[in-house]
């Protein structure tokens, strides 16, 4: 029976039946079991996905979300398809304990080459959240190896670092939807929201003074400081001032705490530089990357660290970073990631491909989103690299925004007060115009 059902789903079977079959069966992210509002996906290619609604209506929509910021090259990219298929001809998976393989080594070499200088050692993790867990463990292990019993972290209000236990503990304790789990979370230290990109010297001075006071009070407890560099993603789509990140880098060094840069959303060009840390002219002690790493083909993330961190761990009694997931360095994921990085950092036209794409996307978003600033209820319109945001004064109706955008041939998934896009890097100029038009229509409550 299960085999028959599976085969029925493989082709172009009655996609509309999925809505009823999954209702009460599958949970979706932050969704109720009874929620039957989802679109069914029947295919995807390039920047577009083929969708079917509950009434059986079919539409093809631009994926303005890049499937939560990961499918930067679009769907079914021939280079990544070929890399995964080629790897399948050899082997799809082996344990990484006691074994190694070319896709993992090649990926580590590529990551060291493209990330900020000094991040020379790589740990491959299952997902973005797991990479944050590994980074926190690495920071604590580093302190233990130095004879210190530090185990807390300084994070930022508005932060979002993932949904696993350690990652939840360094998310904003009020706005990140994790308040129900406080009983199992380590209490961390939270600095105020960092000032925006255009903050005055007085505002920056006040914020730095508040950070200094926390560091003076808790420095002896802090294993590290963790930040999303220069742009807070799921915590509010907020850019912040470069001097705030530079100050955190300085304070981490003074305290003997490691600076962890969570570049899972900001990495690989999305904010306008290869990695957001580079815009501040800093190198973190530990960096997490993910999402666009495999071009959205499968789950994989990486943790990179400096030689100093690695040496302290190597000289400790454990000698190893104490983490080892079953699917660590999955060869298929590594092969996809190698192909994705080759595409992102291709310089055949004189500059990295990601830079050409982001320059073009940013220009289009600025042009076509600007009129939305005059709409009633709009608090702000902002563009950071390849990210466009219409911030509303009130929380948005997710269903209404999604439905309006779909009528314009665009797939959006807003949250909180934000209607936003992180389009695939391959999106054409007219695609960006359509996305901006759909966002403005949704913000204005228009069909």
Automatic annotation (TrEMBL):
Modified residues (N6-(pyridoxal phosphate)lysine): 291
Cofactors (names): pyridoxal 5'-phosphate
Pathway assignment: Cofactor biosynthesis; biotin biosynthesis; 7,8-diaminononanoate from 8-amino-7-oxononanoate (SAM route): step 1/1
Binding of substrate, residues: 68, 160, 291, 324, 413
EC number assigned by the record: 2.6.1.62
Keyword line: Aminotransferase, Biotin biosynthesis, Cytoplasm, Pyridoxal phosphate, S-adenosyl-L-methionine, Transferase
Catalytic activity, reaction form: (8S)-8-amino-7-oxononanoate + S-adenosyl-L-methionine = S-adenosyl-4-methylsulfanyl-2-oxobutanoate + (7R,8S)-7,8-diammoniononanoate
Site residues by UniProt (Participates in the substrate recognition with KAPA and in a stacking interaction with the adenine ring of SAM): 30
Coiled-coil zones: none
Signal sequence, renumbered to the chain: none
Stated family: Belongs to the class-III pyridoxal-phosphate-dependent aminotransferase family. BioA subfamily.
Function noted in UniProt: Catalyzes the transfer of the alpha-amino group from S-adenosyl-L-methionine (SAM) to 7-keto-8-aminopelargonic acid (KAPA) to form 7,8-diaminopelargonic acid (DAPA). It is the only aminotransferase known to utilize SAM as an amino donor.
Subunit composition and interactions: Homodimer.
Protein name: Adenosylmethionine-8-amino-7-oxononanoate aminotransferase
Organism, scientific name: Brevibacterium metallidurans
Origin organism lineage: Bacteria, Bacillati, Actinomycetota, Actinomycetes, Micrococcales
């Amino acid at each position: 029976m299960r085999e028959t059902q599976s085969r029925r789903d493989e082709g172009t079977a009655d996609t509309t039946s999925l809505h009823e079959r999954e209702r009460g069966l599958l949970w979706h992210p932050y969704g109720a079991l009874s929620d039957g509002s989802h679109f069914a996906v029947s295919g995807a290619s390039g920047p577009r996905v083929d969708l079917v609604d509950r009434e059986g209506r079919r539409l093809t929509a631009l994926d303005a979300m890049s499937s939560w910021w990961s499918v930067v090259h679009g769907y079914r990219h021939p280079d990544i398809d070929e890399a995964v298929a080629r790897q399948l001809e050899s082997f799809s998976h082996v344990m990484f304990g006691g074994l190694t393989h070319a896709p993992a080594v090649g990926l580590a070499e590529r990551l060291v080459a493209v990330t900020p200088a000094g991040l020379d050692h790589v740990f491959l993790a299952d997902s973005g959240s797991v990479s944050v867990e590994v980074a926190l463990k690495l920071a604590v292990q580093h302190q233990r190896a130095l004879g210190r019993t530090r185990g807390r972290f300084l994070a930022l209000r508005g932060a979002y670092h993932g949904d696993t236990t350690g990652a939840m503990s360094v998310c904003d304790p009020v706005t990140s939807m994790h308040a129900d789990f406080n009983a199992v979370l380590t209490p961390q230290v939270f600095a105020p929201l960092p000032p925006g990109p255009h903050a005055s010297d007085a505002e920056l001075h006040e914020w730095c003074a508040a950070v200094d006071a926390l560091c003076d009070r808790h420095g002896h407890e802090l294993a590290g400081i963790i930040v999303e560099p220069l742009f807070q993603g799921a915590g509010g789509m907020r850019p912040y001032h470069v001097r705030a990140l530079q100050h955190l880098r300085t304070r981490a060094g003074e305290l003997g705490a490691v600076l962890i840069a969570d570049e899972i959303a900001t990495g690989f060009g999305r904010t306008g530089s290869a990695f957001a840390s580079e815009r501040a002219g800093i190198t973190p002690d530990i960096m997490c990357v993910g999402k666009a790493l495999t071009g959205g083909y499968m789950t994989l993330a990486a943790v990179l660290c400096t030689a100093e961190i690695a040496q302290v761990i190597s000289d400790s009694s454990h000698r190893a970073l104490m983490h080892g997931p079953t699917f660590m360095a999955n060869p298929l994921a590594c092969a996809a990631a190698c192909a994705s990085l080759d595409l992102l950092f291709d310089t055949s036209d004189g500059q990295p491909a990601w830079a050409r794409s982001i320059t073009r996307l940013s220009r289009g978003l600025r042009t076509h989103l600007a009129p939305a600033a005059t709409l009633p209820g709009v608090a702000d319109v902002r563009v950071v690299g390849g990210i466009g945001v219409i911030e509303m004064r009130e929380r948005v109706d997710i269903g209404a925004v999604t439905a309006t955008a779909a009528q314009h041939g665009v797939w959006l998934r807003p949250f909180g007060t934000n209607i936003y896009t992180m389009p695939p890097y391959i999106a054409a100029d007219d695609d960006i115009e359509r996305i901006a038009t759909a966002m403005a229509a949704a913000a204005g409550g228009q069909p």
